[in-house]
Amino acid sequence: MGHFNASDLVTLYGIVQAARERDVAVIVGVSEAERRFIGIHELVALVSSLRETKGPPIFLNADHTHSLSGALEAAKAGFDWVVCDFSSLPFGQNILLTKAAVTAVKALRPDILVEGEIGDIGSGSAIHASAPDRSGTLTTPEEAGQFVEETGIDTLAPAVGNMHGVLRSMLCTQARKHLEVARIRAIKQRVGIFMTLHGGSDTDDGDLREAIAAGMTVVHINTEVRLAWRRALEQALATQEDEIAPYRLLAPALAAVRQVVAERLALFTEGESQRSI
Ligand SMILES: [Zn+2]
User: Fold this and answer.
1) Is 276 domain-assigned?
2) Which residue in 48, 163, 244, 251 has its CB near the most CB atoms, within 10 A?
């Protein structure tokens, strides 16, 4: 499944329109900052009203939630999924806090999915000047197994060569991020639960196909959406000098987001259409 972050109505509508165009289910993700900007209850209301139109399922995920109170707030508000991200803490503490979050959130909403995260893949969707060496923090099948067993999470987000954001040098070249597919396969065999690939933006298409075949259930795309939004908005501002109607200036940004999301959804569901033939 494709997971795309929404920061505002333009990105939210672009994501939902692309999912309807492709007729595939989609996960709308909102980080803590994105939730603050739109409003947590407003997000649930918006998504619930979008669901009233016939179309593929739309799921709402509380992406990268760094506190138990934040996870509970999202669960209470009506989110379908919550990412409890304590991955910046030492492994033992990450296990304890994630386990406590699973227990508390499920007590409130047994139907909600809880995702846990291990390893360091950097924080936030951004344009980075250089790639830090994170080879020492890649997830091993053993620690993934221990983490899943001790926390009771539904979904695991491991560090498998993926990275949040993109490198500045990648913006003007054909360079793409690459994944450790054998590691993904080994972790999946060990844990056997849903797995999420964070930081999927600007990852090589072939690597994404292989990662999905190796067991990734969800792929997160955020930076690509934000870049498409910004570039289209810049162009609209440059070419429509006297325009002041936001809906005219923002229409190209919505179309650009829709296109990026539709392309990624097409890639993610390639295997599915082959299987159904
Ligand atoms: Zn992420």
Assistant:
1) no
2) 163
How far apart, in whole angstroms, are the C-alpha atoms of residue 104 and residue 148? 17
The pLDDT averaged over each successive group of 10 residues in the chain (277 residues) is 98 98 98 97 98 97 98 98 96 98 98 95 74 77 98 97 83 84 98 97 95 97 97 98 97 98 96 54
Distance between Cα 207 and ligand 1 center (Å): 18
- Could you tell me the CATH number of the domain that includes residue 177? 3.20.20.70
Q: Is residue 25 part of a domain?
A: yes
Asked, for residue 277, whether it belongs to a domain, the answer is no
Domain count, the chain: 1
Protein residues with C-beta less than 5 angstroms from the ion ligand 1 = 198
CA of 196 to the centre of ligand 1 (A): 9
Has this prediction a pTM greater than 0.85?
yes
What gap in Å lies between CA 234 and CA 232, rounded to an integer?
A: 5
User: What is the whole-number distance in angstroms between the Cα of residue 251 and the centre of ligand 1?
Assistant: 27
